[in-house]
Amino acid sequence: NSLAYRTLEILRNHTQHAGFPIQSVQYSYTVMRAVPGTPLKYTVAPLLDTEHLELNRALKKSVIKELAQCGKHVNLKQFIREYVASMASVHERLRELTMPIFHNDASCLQRLVQIFLSSTGSTVIPVPLYAASFDDAICTKKLLLGNGLQEYGNFLAAGNAHFTHTGISYVSGELEKDT
Predict the structure, then answer these.
(1) Residue 73: how many other CB atoms lie within 10 Å
(2) Of 87-96, 137-146, 157-166, where does mean pLDDT reach its minimum?
(3) Can you give the pTM of this predicted structure?
(4) Residue 29 — φ and ψ, nearest 5°?
(5) Distance of CA 64 to CAs 74, 127, 165, Å?
(6) What is the pLDDT of residue 6?
(7) Rounded distance, CA 125 to CA 171, Å?
(8) pLDDT band with cut points at 50, 70 and 90 for residue 8
(9) CA distances (Å), 34 to each of 30, 41, 70, 111, in order?
(10) Contact 125, 147 (CB under 8 A)
């Protein structure tokens, strides 16, 4: 239902089948303070030319019509921020939904390891553990079930968490002079 998502979707299609959709880039700057030698704030804005998109008949007309209501040249920065934040929210929700399954599987694996160790009298498993798929006694696929998989997943989730806030905040290169 997001215009940002629908816009990025048609831009992907346009790029794949017709060419680069960004027809211009706007550069601007603002003096942060009126004192000579103080920092400037530079901005770069990728602009989408809605009339150029209208030439591509394969694109969704309803989305182009919505974009045209925003003007002839549409600044894509907010659309990109919202799109990235939406994708991050989807990933976060997926992690929430799969976490109980993952924890259950990890607990099951730990129980199996303990059963193996107690049945062999060993204190360590001498070889790596794999989940395997077989077709007529031939291993067709295997996946390493190494230690640290959950920790690595948590590390990745924590590293990507900031993307959910991209729609409301953004990186800035503004410098402030110490006073």
Answers:
(1) 16
(2) 157-166
(3) 0.62
(4) -145, 155
(5) 11, 58, 27
(6) 93
(7) 47
(8) very high
(9) 10, 12, 33, 68
(10) no
Residue with tokens 């211009």: 24
Average the pLDDT over each of 10-19, 59-68, 142-151, 166-175 and give the range with the smallest value. Answer: 166-175
Structure tokens at 53: 């998109």
- Strand positions, DSSP E, the chain: 22-31, 40-49, 73-75, 130-135, 138-144
pLDDT at position 149: 67
Q: How far is CA 128 from CA 124, 143, 144, in A?
A: 10, 10, 7
Residues above pLDDT 90, as percent of the chain: 14
Phi, psi of 126 (to 5 degrees): -75, -15
Q: Is there a contact between 7 and 21 (Cβ–Cβ < 8 Å)?
A: no
Instruction: Name which of 60, 84, 75, 85 is nearest 6 in CA terms.
Output: 60
Give the residue with greater pLDDT, 179 vs 60: 60
Whether 160 contacts 91, CB under 8 Å: yes
Tell me how crowded residue 64 is: count the other CB atoms within 10 A of its CB.
Answer: 19
Contact 42/28 with Cβ under 8 angstroms? yes
Closest Cα to residue 84, out of 177, 152, 171, 172? 171
